[in-house]
UniProtKB/TrEMBL annotation:
<protein>
    <submittedName>
        <fullName>LysR family transcriptional regulator</fullName>
    </submittedName>
</protein>
<dbReference type="InterPro" id="IPR000847">
    <property type="entry name" value="LysR_HTH_N"/>
</dbReference>
<feature type="domain" description="HTH lysR-type">
    <location>
        <begin position="1"/>
        <end position="59"/>
    </location>
</feature>
<keyword id="KW-0805">Transcription regulation</keyword>
<dbReference type="InterPro" id="IPR005119">
    <property type="entry name" value="LysR_subst-bd"/>
</dbReference>
<dbReference type="InterPro" id="IPR058163">
    <property type="entry name" value="LysR-type_TF_proteobact-type"/>
</dbReference>
<keyword id="KW-0804">Transcription</keyword>
<dbReference type="InterPro" id="IPR036388">
    <property type="entry name" value="WH-like_DNA-bd_sf"/>
</dbReference>
<dbReference type="Pfam" id="PF00126">
    <property type="entry name" value="HTH_1"/>
</dbReference>
<dbReference type="Pfam" id="PF03466">
    <property type="entry name" value="LysR_substrate"/>
</dbReference>
<comment type="similarity">
    <text>Belongs to the LysR transcriptional regulatory family.</text>
</comment>
<dbReference type="InterPro" id="IPR036390">
    <property type="entry name" value="WH_DNA-bd_sf"/>
</dbReference>
<keyword id="KW-0238">DNA-binding</keyword>
Amino acid sequence: MDNWDDMRVFLAVARTESLSGAAPILKMDPATLGRRIARLERAMGAALFVKSPQGYALTDLGERIRDRAAEAETALTFAFDEGQGASAALTGQIRIGAPDGAASYLLPQVCAAIQAENPELEIQVLALPRVVNLSRREADMAIAVSPPAAGRLMVQKITDYHLHLATRADASPIRLRDDLKGRPIVGYIPDMIFDKELDYLGDLGAGGVQLASNSVAVQLQMLRHAGVGFVHDFILPFAPELRRVLTDQISLRRSFYLVRHMSDRQSDRLTRFAAALTKGLQAEVVRLEAGHA
């Protein structure tokens, strides 16, 4: 790779594993990216990706180059941070990985407020039904529901949040656990639960999930039509047609954690952004949960 632009193209495709995924990040069309990758591979005399209908997977050589390119990107970011100065407004691009509950119902308004104070800052939210891989630089930082136990990572607890069973407000009353019998249960697809903290129905002792999705947003839409399932208290203001049930009998508490790569501790820019993000998320959870306290 002769220049930084080649590195940006290579890293974006490597991280998203597709031309269509990298296109909006780089503000280039997929066809152009495909030509750039082909030209890069010709220049290097070797394949960097294995192409298939499922996307672009790195070859062994591609993985080695990705790791070196990510190190160079980190070094360049630190140099950029030094030039900004601690008092300057945040600029550049920052990507946050998050589970879709936080990504859909907390991060939009929190990130909008941060960006309004830093007009030249570009914030990207990567919503994934799995753990974000910071080692591969899929994101600059991630929100997790369990603190990771391995890796060179910095972990900071952001805040607790709560979940309760909910159903349509016009559904027949649920006053006892026995009233749940015969009602479809809404929840995660069991074999796609990527974190033990998302196994809500284990606390309920439910026999199965009749309406399931790996997406919190889809589960919410299901509950708007039928069934009963766990809903984050901070999401309920977005679904006024739902009501909490059995609140005195069944209540869950979980936590959000901010996870960053250990090497980023030297980045004043990312540290300042992380502080603003943490403060904003704490305040937003309190605000949204207040109506159901």
